[in-house]
Amino acid sequence: DVIAEIGRGDASTAWTVGIINGANWMAAAIFPEETQQEVFGTEGGARVTGVLAPRQCTVQRVDGGYLIKEGKWGFNSGSYHSNWVELGIPLLNERGEVVDQGLALLPAQDVERLNDWNVIGMQGTGSTSVAVQNKFVPDRRITSMHQSTEGNYLSKNLRDEAEYRYAFVPFLAIMLDFPILGAVRTMLDLLLERLPSRGIQYTWYTKQAEATITHLQVAEATAKIDAAQLFIERAVDDIESWAQRGEYMEYMNRARVRMDTGYAARLLFEAADIIVEASGGSFATAHNPMNHFWRDVRTGTLHAMLNPSTNLELYGRLLCGQPANTPLV
């Protein structure tokens, strides 16, 4: 709710807060106590960001850890605020063969920002690509992605805390919907505020609020926003209830949360488009706040974890007895 409320004012700020909260949670939940002390003992407090999947990455297994010889990761949201960065890397066996995907935790000074975040929306997230060359990461700051998705977290000291038993992928996925939910609610508020003072061009309507088409548009947009919130709340309730019971969320439930996450994002973008359609030509003005919010919503819903087609396919495949289309469940 806090992140959604921040999103009502600025989606980029809400997105960055959500990403750092989620990455801080990972640093606490899926790494051992020794690493927690290192990260959260950082002067000024820990601000962790991360990218799960590399665009390219070459590593070498060495004594005591991994050498990241060369790697590049895209869309590291919150990069300019972070002092620690979690980056997905391949994990190798003794023969140098890839056997798993891992997550390496590096101090931000070991990571180069490529300053390539030149986009139409979510500009304030600073989601630049990052690169690493010839940096050593000790074993205490590396964890298995596969083990994390299965709930086998390394934070033995936090096992009595329900919030550190949240299911890995569902928790990180649903966090992404909240900034967009807040932004679309503000778009609806902006539309409703303007209705009494504007007409509809080339019609007899001098007050848009009196037009039947406006009633249909406002009702449908509201219905989509409310439906998205219901999907989000169902997912959150599931994540919390499993953790409170001390159980790791069952596989099909995790897949359903991914479906809920993507479908909520689709509903929110559809609602935003209806609001834009009702806003008239003034929407295209560069300084129109509605324009700013729409660009943030459109950019945010392009995140791979929010892709409704991928998430629907995942759940549909499992319902039909087929293997998942992703390891991130």
Key words describing this protein structure:
alpha+beta; 329 residues; 2 domains; Butyryl-CoA Dehydrogenase, subunit A, domain 2; 8 strands; Butyryl-CoA Dehydrogenase, subunit A, domain 3; four-stranded antiparallel β-sheet; 10 helices; four-stranded mixed β-sheet
Task: Summarize, please.
The chain has 329 residues and is α+β, with helices and mostly antiparallel strands. It has helices at residues 2-9, 11-29, 33-40, 145-149, 168-174, 177-194, 212-244, 251-277, 289-300, 308-319, and strands at 48-51, 56-62, 65-73, 84-92, 98-107, 112-113, 130-138, 142-144.
CATH class of the largest domain: Mainly Alpha
Helix content: 40-55%
Q: What is the domain total for the residues?
A: 2
Q: What is the overall silhouette?
A: globular
CATH topology-level fold name of the largest domain: Butyryl-CoA Dehydrogenase, subunit A, domain 3
- Elements, N to C (H/E): HHHEEEEEEEEHHHHHHH
Distance between the termini: 24 Å
CATH-derived architecture of the largest domain = Up-down Bundle
Number of contiguous helices? 10
For the residues shown, what is the average pLDDT?
96
The assembly state of the depicted protein chains is single chain
Poorly predicted runs are none
β-strand percent reads 15-25%
Order of strands across the widest beta sheet? 1-4-5-8
- C-alpha-based Rg, rounded: 22 Å
Largest sheet: 4 strands, mixed
Number of strands: 8
> Structural class of the helix and strand makeup?
alpha+beta
Verbal overview:
- The protein contains ten helices and eight strands.
- The chain folds into two domains: 12-162, Butyryl-CoA Dehydrogenase, subunit A, domain 2, CATH 2.40.110.10; 168-319, Butyryl-CoA Dehydrogenase, subunit A, domain 3.
- 45% of the residues lie in helices and 16% in strands.
- The protein is an alpha+beta fold.
- It has a four-stranded mixed β-sheet with strand order 1-4-5-8. The protein has a four-stranded antiparallel β-sheet with strand order 2-3-7-6, with no helix packed on it.
- The protein has helices spanning 2-9, 11-29, 33-40, 145-149, 168-174, 177-194, 212-244, 251-277, 289-300, 308-319; strands at residues 48-51, 56-62, 65-73, 84-92, 98-107, 112-113, 130-138, 142-144.
